[in-house]
Amino acid sequence: MQEKKAWALNGFVGILLVLLWFAIGGFIGATSDGVGGPIVAIVFLFLGILSLSGLQIVQPNQGYVVMFFGRYLGSLREDGFWWTIPFSSRKKVSMRVRNFHTNQLKVNDVDGNPIEIAAVIVFNVVDSAKAMFDVDNYERFVEIQSEIALRHIASYYPYDNLDDKGGFTLRANADEVAEQLQLDLQNRLAIAGVKVLEARLTHLAYSAEIAHAMLQRQQASAILAARALIVEGAVGMVKMAIQKLQAEGVVELDEERKAAMINNLMVSIVSDRGTQPIVNAGSLY
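Request: output the structure for the sequence above.
Response:
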């Protein structure tokens, strides 16, 4: 069902009509002597009371769905004082921006690792007719669909790129994941007349049963990466030192002496502890 604008007049015009019906009814009742006079007066007084039921105050960012004996007549969205169809029922729908924080969910990522994830959804109603008639309870609908979309997104990406496979991950690509979550959720909530303004992850962690193991794996990966960088730099420094010694003719190095010097330099540079120099007073041979 699509939202449409309900028929309405300025509320003060409605009050004037109410007063007019009352005035006419009172005048006829006071001036008429016959039997028909009081009946006409009662009719006008009834019209005045009937007109009172059409008065409605609409607050900013608030809407009212107007129904007349089960038929949808339209929605009042403009704030102010209005007079609409008398005897119609009007249900309030909030158009304000609201936040919904999902529960902390335990799901498996694309690699099968159990993770804990939660998100905050910022939304508002843009179609009051869909929110009221196309779903049973649009607020509950938002809650359930938010958790479904969050589970789907969490199972679509890996938590972290531990094997250097490339691609998006939940931890490293928060903006891209949030954008995908918003698009997925918008497709699900369009039927309820809800617009998703933003969706952001608020909690992301490995589940308790594997958190310690994954932390050790991350630490090992970081140590290996650091060691590889240190060795690469040490090789360059040793190479530069040997070339500089030979270029300036400081000392003549045969292959055995060169190997010994390379060994000493590599140990000195790569070692994670301070090295102690050993003074050789004799010949290498």
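The mean pLDDT is 82.
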